[in-house]
Amino acid sequence: METTSAGAVAFPGPDLLERRLGSFLARRGMSVDAVRGEADQGVGAPALAVAAGSVLAGFGNDRSDLDLLVLVENDRLTRFPIQSHEHGTLIDVNIRSAGAVRDATAGLTAEPWPRFATVTESAWNHRRRALNTANRLALGLPLIATPPWDDWHQELRRPWLAGVMEEWWTVEAHRLAEAARWLLSTRPMAAAVRAREAVVAALSARAAAGGELYFAAKWVGEKLKNLGDTEGLALLRAALAPPADPAGSVRRGLAAVERLAGDPAPLHAVLRWSTGVGTAPLDDRTVVDRWQLRALEVPGRDLPPGDGDGIVWSGPAGTPPPAEPLRLFAHNLVWLGLAHPDPEVTV
Q1: Architecture of domain 14-157 in CATH?
Q2: What phi and psi values does residue 141 have, to the nearest 5 degrees?
Q3: What is the pLDDT of residues 64-92, one digit of tens each?
């Protein structure tokens, strides 16, 4: 479905970003220099400092905080978050290793995605964090930019970023829709939640295709308003309505995802163990536990070890798994991903 308007500017120019930041700071009696001063927290000289977040995206309000993303050339640092209230308002300072952020960003386009070999729960979350960081940097206002990081920052503001954003939300919509289908018979309320999340993801992909690239899903309504997308807003309102009839909510949500995101083919569903799962063969069955707090017995001893990334089951998206993998999924013992079919994987 096409949006009714293309009113978004994918990468706002510096004049607009300066106006947004200036308006936010003026209401608080703050200066840009005060924000810039928060970039140096004693863990390395800032190579790049970018004011970012909902304020710079145009969605912030008087209760919003201000994000300041800082990259330093310090390979011993991974992530160093600091909340500063020195100037009477919250500045959420997040300091990262410049090299690590550069490498994670390069990985977004280094190879086709999603792939069987890299579709694990940790890799999925890593990609989401890398997308969020690259997105906020690209849509923010540089307050400090030293060579070569000034040029690197400009390369973020290119069409490739819009492409990976739309791709992420489209695949995520199909993944959440698959989860809703699988949960409906045993956990209908959980299925309704997943169906709602799938619609929000599909609408986020639609907004990204229209030029609204800000990553946070909670602003999807505002993004659709900017696009003049009345049809998308109607779908969002319906999806967010309380699921008094969970089965009906799931059916309507899945129909909306199909309209928005199309057919998931050729993607395959991939089940791997959830984080914290352990397995213990016992006679002719296997005990599967998570964090040693709860467990489930399943027939057979041929499951992959719980401490690895072996595939528990895979099959074309839209195809339900056999009873035992489905039971493991309903009990949150396996994690669901989607990937393009791998010729080495037999289904």
Answers
A1: 2-Layer Sandwich (3.30)
A2: -110, 115
A3: 899 999 999 998 888 888 888 877 788 99
